Amino acid sequence: MRTAAKMWHGHLAHATHGRDGHATFKIWGLCLLAVGFCLLAPAGCSKNDTEDGKTVVTMATSGGDRQEKMFDELIKVFEKDNPDIKIKRLDIPQTALYIKLQVMIAGKCAPDLIPMMSMRVPMFMHRYALLPLDGLMQQDPQFMDLYKNDFWPGSFQGLQLNGNTYVIPWLQNPYALYYNKNIFDDYNKAHADDQISYPDANWDLDKFVEVAKKLTQGEGADKIYGTNITGTYFYVLCPILRRFGVELFNPEGTRCNLNDPRAIAAMEWYFGLALKDGVAPDPRAGSGARGGSTAGGPEDPFKAGKIAMWEAEGEWRFDFTEEIGDRFVWDVAEPPRGLDKYGAVRTSGYECFGMSISSTCEHPKEAWRFISYLVSPVGQEIMTRHHVGVPVLKSLCNSKDCFLNPADKPPSKEIYLRTAGYGKDIPSLRNFQEVESAVIEELDQARFGAKDVASACRAAARTANKLLAEDAKED
User: Is 449 helix (H, G, I), strand (E, B) or coil?
Assistant: First the structure.
């Protein structure tokens, strides 16, 4: 096993956290953060097993206002139905979640319930931090009925390893292609002899670029772009690579494939959207790591009405509903498929958020009862009503009283169910943070035009492979 010093040196040196901020921190900032958490850990880790005669179960949460309000309601309903249990929340900022959890685990004061994404599971399993859940599952007949008959196919991908289940999915976040109908309509009004349809499932990558070129118009601050590129994080790269017939890593997670000719072609296509085709904001002229954004994040140009099409997570639909309002009409479509010469691969980004139980939890049966409630029809309906994500139960996904409620935007929300059907999560690695950070550093050289794409891809593969090999030696 690796020593604590080795583990912390690696994870603090190259740590990339969360999807909300997609922020890559400097090593000194992370060190200060970790030290601060360590100093605070004794106070935050004191546990009372019972309170007012109830068993106390602690739960880490992170996810913004909507999720906080959702958990507020869910916990009240759960505690009413389970009067012998009290749930205590520990709210952690999204960008600090996995660092603080690692500190708490090292200090043997982890919360009982731990939120988890699939790419993080190997890292926590390596620390023996997660409790296998199969025994608790099998002792819960109601859960097993849902597990066998109603859970969304594929929602457990990456959460079941080595024959054991370590995390239960409770929230899906499929990707889709967002598009601004007004930009399409304005183009068609001005070009009676060259009408463009809204995006559909028949589009391939060539068609996507062809339309993006036509919709890129104007100059300066008023310029409208056909699309936008938003960085080199794995959740961005993986769907693009798969459309070119190649995975980011081999199945064993021991080799990076960015030096594969298909991967190089994929990155040339992606970076070329801005640097060659000119259909996306030039990252060299914008706010750097934000991918040419007009303000604070990659979603801002779309919200400002400056982007015709943008492929992104399903969760953005909630912000778009609230912030775009009636300024323009938008909807979602399936992302373009790969080209015929690459097998015309149809794929999409996909994420699933889950809940796990700490291996040090003193009341696993009570903690399990909350997880079981979270994924029950009652819990999933509360989650959906608070506009947190897509349910993991097929019955609620297909219900017009729940996810398909016609009162909720966008009009074509069934698209998320289609992409969830063929979407695939990003790879899970034991040293995920270090590898992703190193790959980003190399590929951004090409994204900003400082290095040719082939050289950047090969350098990224070499760096990633070195980190993967070093991690394997530390067993």
Answer: coil
Contacts of 122 (CB under 8 A, 6+ apart): 161, 428, 429, 430, 432
Q: What is the DSSP secondary-structure string of 194-227?
A: S--PPP-TT-BHHHHHHHHHHH-B--GGG-BBS-
Structure tokens belonging to residue 259: 């030096």
- Same domain, yes or no: 201 and 229: yes
20 assigned to some structural domain: no
pLDDT tens digits for 1-37? 223 322 322 333 333 333 433 333 333 344 444 445 4
* Residues 320 and 440 placed together within one structural domain of the fold: yes
Residue 145, Cβ density class (10 Å: 0-12 exposed, 13-18 middle, ≥19 buried): exposed
Return the closest-CA partner of residue 33 out of 84, 103, 83. 103
Amino acid identity for residue 55 in this structure: T
Cα gap 468→394, rounded to integer Å = 37
Going through 373-434 in order, the beta strands assigned E by DSSP cover none
How many domains is the chain built from?
2
197-249: per-residue pLDDT in tens?
A: 999 999 999 999 999 999 999 998 899 999 999 899 999 999 999 999 999 99
The pair of structure tokens assigned to 147 is: 């597990």
Q: Is residue 188 part of a domain?
A: yes
**Cis before residue 410, ω within 30 degrees of 0?**
yes
State the DSSP H helix or E strand holding residue 332, giving kind and residue range, or none if neither: strand 330-333
Read off the CATH number of the domain in which 385 is found: 3.40.190.10
Beta bridge partners of 88: 58
The residue with tokens 């389970």 is: 82
- Under DSSP, is residue 103 helix (H, G, I), strand (E, B) or coil? helix
Asked if residue 185 belongs to a domain, the reply is yes
Boundaries of domain holding 118:
48-173+350-419
